[in-house]
Design a protein that fits this description.
This protein is α+β, with helices and mostly antiparallel strands. The protein has helices at about 15-25, 50-55, 60-70, 130-160, 175-185, 185-200, 210-220, 250-264; strands at about 1-5, 35, 40, 45, 75-80, 85-90, 95, 100-115, 115-125. The model is unreliable at about 100-130 (pLDDT under 50).
C-alpha cells in the first residue's frame, strides 16, 4: 500500500494535521468489513481520540484541533456511537494506492521546442504482480496490528497504575486489554472513579476487588451507559436540635389542668 500526499497539499506544512491525516490513511479499510455487528465501509475505520493520541504521540488536545481542521476542510468526517467513533476519509482513493507503483520512463512521443525535437519524460503506472501486491498489503496489515497491540498494552498499563489492588495482572488477557482499549481509556477511567467513590462510602467493610477481577468484568456496571447512581441517604435529624414546641403533648390533659387552676 502506497500513500501519496504531495507537497502542494494544503496542510502539508502543518505537522500535526499532516501526521493525523497520514495516520487515518494508514488505518482506513480498503474493503468493506464488519465490526461489532456494524458494517465499516472501505475508506472508514473505527477509533477514538484516546486511541489516536496513543498511536500518533499527539496529545488528545492536538488530535482534536487537527481533526477539526481536517473536518472543516472536508478531508475527514466522523460518526460517533456510545462506544466508539467511525472515521471516514473522504475520497481516500486519491491518496491510497495498493497495487500500483509509479515508474518514470521515456516514451517515443516528441515535443518541438524552438525548432528542436526533445524527448518528453512521462509517468506511467505499471501493474505490480499480484503476489507482490498481496505481500505489500500483508506487510502493511502486520505493521498496523503491531502498532495497535502496543497501543492497547500501553493503555492497559496506564489504567493498571491507577488501580489500588494490583493483584492478578497476569490474568488479564491481551483480548481483554484490547476490549478495554476499544471501549476507550477515558470511559474506563470514569468507571474506575465511580467504583472507587462507591468503595469510599463503605470503606469500613468494603475493600477493592483484585485488579484482574475489575478489569475482566467488574468495570462493566460502572460504564457511562450502565451506571446508576445510588440514592443519597436522607439526612438524620439531631434530637438535640428539636424545639420544645415540636414535642408531642396531650392537649386534653393540658386543658383539664388549666380549668382546675381557674376553679381554685
Amino acid at each position: 500500500m502506497n500513500i501519496n500526499i504531495n507537497t502542494g497539499w494544503e496542510w502539508y506544512e502543518n505537522t500535526n494535521v499532516f501526521r493525523l491525516f497520514y495516520h487515518c490513511l494508514l488505518h482506513t479499510n480498503l474493503e468493506d468489513k464488519r465490526y461489532c455487528g456494524k458494517e465499516i465501509k472501505a475508506g472508514q475505520f473505527v477509533s477514538s481520540i484516546t486511541r489516536i493520541s496513543a498511536e500518533t504521540g499527539l496529545t488528545e488536545s492536538q488530535v482534536r484541533t487537527a481533526l477539526k481542521k481536517l473536518k472543516d476542510t472536508g478531508y475527514i468526517s466522523t460518526k460517533s456511537t456510545n462506544k466508539y467513533t467511525i472515521y471516514t476519509v473522504n475520497e481516500y482513493q486519491k491518496y491510497i494506492d495498493c497495487g500500483q507503483v509509479v515508474e518514470a520512463t521515456t516514451e517515443g512521443n516528441k515535443v518541438v521546442e524552438n525548432g528542436t525535437k526533445m524527448e518528453q519524460t512521462v509517468e506511467r503506472k505499471m501493474e505490480q504482480p499480484e503476489e507482490k501486491v498481496k505481500e505489500t498489503c500483508e506487510k502493511s496489515k502486520e505493521n498496523c496490528e503491531k502498532s495497535n497491540k502496543k497501543a492497547f498494552i500501553d493503555c492497559f498499563e496506564r489504567l493498571w497504575k491507577k488501580y489500588p489492588n494490583k493483584r492478578g495482572k497476569g490474568q488479564v488477557s491481551d483480548t481483554k486489554k484490547k476490549t478495554l482499549y476499544e471501549i476507550g481509556e477515558e470511559k474506563i477511567e470514569r468507571a474506575l472513579k465511580r467504583y472507587l467513590d462507591d468503595l469510599s462510602k463503605d470503606s469500613s467493610w468494603r475493600k477493592p476487588q483484585n485488579g484482574s477481577t475489575f478489569f475482566n468484568s467488574g468495570y462493566v456496571d460502572y460504564l457511562d451507559e450502565n451506571y446508576e447512581k445510588p440514592p443519597e441517604p436522607k439526612p438524620q435529624r439531631n434530637p438535640a436540635s428539636i424545639l420544645d414546641c415540636e414535642h408531642d403533648y396531650d392537649f386534653d390533659d393540658l386543658e383539664m389542668q388549666l380549668m382546675q387552676k381557674q376553679l381554685e
